Amino acid sequence: MSYVVLSYADLALAATLILISGALSLAFRLGVGQQMLIAAARMCVQLGAIGFVLKFIFAQSSPLWTIGLAAMMLLIAGREVLGRQTTLFRGLWTYGIGTAAMTFATTLVLTFALLVLVRPEPWYAARFALPLLGMLLGNTLSGVSLGLETLIATARRERSAIEARIALGHTRFEALGDAYRSSLRTGLMPIINAMSATGIVTLPGMMTGQVLAGVDPVEAVKYQILVMFLIGGATALGVVGAVLASVMRLTDERHRLRLDRLRVE
Amino acid sequence: MVGSLEEPAVRERSERGAVARLTAAGLQVPGLEPVSLTVSSGECVSLSGPSGSGKSLILRALADLDPRAGELALDGTPRTEVSGPNWRRAVRYFAAESGWWGGRVRDHFRDQGSVGSSLDIVGLPADAADWQIDRLSSGERQRLALLRGLEDGPRVLLLDEPTGALDEDTRDLVETLIMAKRAGGTAVLLVSHDRGQIARLADRGLEIRGGCVETTP
Questions:
Q1: B30 touches chain A (CB under 8 A)
Q2: Across the A/B interface, how many CB contacts are shorter than 8 Å?
């Protein structure tokens, strides 16, 4: 088994496939042809850029560069959480809570992975740290976004039930118990679904990539299982952190419901 | 998951069922001049005023449900010395529109086993404990919300239109219940549009006029 290097001509030939989608759009007058082309172009530019950035950072082999890019990925992931919410906290609270929860969860799990499980030499080798962080972050991001969205939507919809409990002397975690439990459940659903479907319905991208690169499938599967466990842990920590912090922000120290802290259009 | 600390000062006195005196001084409620009032044990005070004049906001502020500046005290104990949940266990707000979180009536009571035996007080059969919340009429909800809120013996009742959705028979039951609580030493602040009800229940009246809470002559 060997790794087959792609030429730019191969890529150009593959790009013609995107024209099928364009033709489809024209034939059925979907009006998404232009969007499709722009998206394809964006993908090329973004991936091309990250290819060169990673190549540069791998060459540095410096913890500072690795941590710098990791921090940037976390900040961008925080932006992405914002983009997926219909209702935000006033001020920077949604961004802050989302970013902090994801930073806490992925840093903890990544440190465990690098120092205890994978143990690359040196531990900060960007070739291991950054792709792992990327996978953790992508999944934690979905969980955190769904959890926050569900919590805030439920609190707004169930306002009178929650306030009834508060008026009866329940604490904030009792009054918002149903709301935060369903938010945690929703936030954990994607990883549960991903684990159940994987290997039967889907072949994970990372594993496929390793197999294409010439790695023994059984070895690739071991890596994939490790990554799934890491993702499961990071998602759980991230969702719990973000949802509980949001329960605290949705209420105050007198255990009142504070929907006035939401920015409602 | 976060337990609440019991403040012995407030709880113990409530169990003895002795005095209850709710005082507000300079309470800032939107749209109103600072509110000062007192409701004492065994007393029913009515609060009236036009729709939208802020009656419900006053009751909510007294139950510490909204962040409002001003002083609140129960038997001289300032609210700042009591946690929010413990304050509301003593000073209980009954909203005009009650909120429900569980599937059945029983789920909303602290002592779920003995709900059935108390339902006749508000004119409902014992099997109503297992009724589904979605299928309750507004009058049934209102009576059940009152029963639910009286279960743990709050010392001050802040009643927002407690008979708004009731017919005459059930209204009489609820009024009898309120008067029994008052006779037992509970302090009652009653918001009502019904002049007859105010005349039947209230010892004295407060009225919102031009943004001020005044004593009804």
A1: no
A2: 73
| Distance from the A254 Cα atom to the nearest Cα atom in chain B, whole angstroms | 4
Residue A41: which domain range?
1-60
Going by pLDDT thresholds of 50, 70 and 90, the confidence category of residue A258 is: very high
**Residues A113, A29 share a domain:** no
pTM of the model: 0.88
Please write the tens of the pLDDT for every residue from A147-205: 999 999 999 999 999 999 999 999 999 999 999 999 999 999 999 998 998 888 888 88
In chain A, residues with a C-beta closer than 8 Å to the C-beta of B64 are 254, 256
| Closest Cα in chain A to B79 | A254
In order of A209, B43, B192, B206, the CA distances from B160 in angstroms are 65, 16, 7, 14
The Cα of B92 is separated from the nearest Cα of chain A by a number of Å equal to 6
Q: Does A201 touch chain B (CB under 8 A)?
A: no
Same-domain status, A74 and A55: no
SS3 labels along chain A: CCCCCCCHHHHHHHHHHHHHHHHHHHHCCCCCHHHHHHHHHHHHHHHHHHHHHHHHHHHHCCHHHHHHHHHHHHHHHHHHHHHCCCCEECCCHHHHHHHHHHHHHHHHHHHHHHHHHHCCCCCCCHHHHHHHHHHHHHHHHHHHHHHHHHHHHHHHHCHHHHHHHHHCCCCHHHHCHHHHHHHHHHHHHHHHHHHHHECCCECCHHHHHHHHCCCCHHHHHHHHHHHHHHHHHHHHHHHHHHHHHHHHHHECCCCCECHHHEECC
Give how many domains chain A has, as a whole number: 2
Q: Is there a single domain that holds both residue A55 and residue A66? A: no
Q: What is the mean pLDDT of chain A?
A: 93
Residue B8's pLDDT is what?
44
Same domain, A75 and A23: no
Shared domain for A84 and A43, answered yes or no, is no
Average pLDDT over residues A224-243: 96
Q: Closest Cα of chain B to A215: distance in Å?
A: 47
Question: Are residues A220 and A138 both part of a single domain?
Answer: yes
Measure CB to CB from residue B65 to each of A163, A171, A172 and give the nearest one.
A163
Is the pLDDT reported for residue B195 higher than 50? yes
